[in-house]
Amino acid sequence: MNKRLAQVMAILLALVIVGLGSFTAIQFQSTDELESQIELSNSFIYPAPKKLPPFQLMEQHGKPFSNTDLEDKWSLLFIGYTSCPDVCPTTMAKLSAAYPELLKSADIQIIFLSVDPQRDTQEKLLNYMDFFNPKFIALTGDHAQLFPLTRSLGFVYVMVGEGENYQIDHSASMALISPAGDRVAIIKPKSSSPGTFPQITSQALISDIRQITQRESR
């Protein structure tokens, strides 16, 4: 009888240990993993924030703009040029429409980084921002400043063609910069179905940024 009882007690003890282990695992998952799991449509959060290289650019009103101007607020940054025939005006229009909703999620500034300093004068950048949204910021500088900054943001650009009518192939993604001035996420266009043009919908953009900024603020 004692032997039988000992066997039953051993089985019960084993079940309790397994149960505690499962409970502990669930606890760890709920506190560590589940809290960090968010449903993003177009965005990727980097494993660790990345510092940007020091830079000194000029904004559309002729004022200098550097790393310190990225601090204490969120920044959504993308590259392009005012002569861009498709991606840039589409992105600017989409951001202008989404901007009021983005501000509900976080204190955020929209930054257009021109990679065409030869043609994008201060006047052109000012007119471009005034047309889409005068609250947006337009920046540019020489390529010695632009190349390392765009690379650190995860962007690329290249001049195509010769003469004054050259075009620029450039990334269509957006980079999200934290109030610490660090790159924390990239937002990439994607196709909704095979054969369709990759894009970032306004709804996906608003949802992704809301989730990322809330997550990073915890």
Question: How would you characterize this protein structure?
Answer:
The structure is a single chain. Helices cover 40% and strands 24% of the residues. The chain is built from 5 helices and 10 strands, in the order αββββαβαβαββββα. The chain has helices spanning 2-33, 87-105, 122-132, 143-153, 202-216; strands at residues 43-51, 56-59, 64-66, 74-80, 108-114, 137-140, 157-160, 167-170, 174-177, 182-187. Strands 1-10-9-4-5-6-2-3 form an 8-stranded mixed sheet, with helices on both faces. It has a two-stranded antiparallel ribbon with strand order 7-8.
Q: Percent of residues in helical segments? A: 40-55%
Question: Treating each run of at least 4 consecutive H or I residues as one helix, how many helices?
Answer: 5
Distance between the termini: 57 Å
The global form is globular
Q: How much of the polypeptide forms β-strand, as a percent range?
A: 15-25%
Secondary-structure-derived class: alpha+beta
Quick check: average pLDDT? 85
* CA-atom Rg in angstroms: 24 Å
Query: Count the strands?
Result: 10
Order of helices and strands: HEEEEHEHEHEEEEH
Low-confidence stretches: 8-35
Order of strands, widest sheet: 1-10-9-4-5-6-2-3
